[in-house]
Amino acid sequence: MFALRKPVFTSRFLSTVAKAMNDHGIVPDVLKDAPDNLIQVSYPNDVVVKLGNELTPTQVKERPSVLWEANANSFYTLCMTDPDAPSRAEPTFREWHHWLVGNIPGKQVPLGDVLSDYIGSGPPEGTGLHRYVFLVFQQNGKIAFDEPRLPNNSGDKRGCFSIAKFAEKYKLELIAGNFYQAQYDDYVPILYKQLGE
Length: 197
Description:
The protein is an alpha+beta fold. It contains 4 helices and 10 strands.
């Protein structure tokens, strides 16, 4: 009897995710270990997140659609976080989380509990490229999160966050990730007005 082997495409593909996260310093800046699986993240106008590609704040201002391999009977947590706040050289607010949704049934993000509503990228002028990291964690079951619910018209309570500590607190298992990079463009002042800054 022969054991089934994973196709070469899959093993190469999985290592690509971890390699990109290691190459871009997401390990260790955000995570101790990178996931092997990819989250598909797409914005309107066919803008797709591709393991570190550069996008603009204008391109990512709307909430994206997010897909990953999910069990329909399980619950998941999705996070988007920026470890480079206010800059990669001086990340004094590491991490600034942009989006946090828990209790997602299967991969149905709109049915999850929004803990922090989506805010697009807003890197300050002159701070270079920021990394915006999407992570999906599998939960052990439905969770009664004791986190504040944060709207998308304020930046309060979003800085100095740690998705690794959050995952440890709620016993979440990291299963997938993706990320893009962005720097200041002329949409950023509009976003700051939305946040009351």
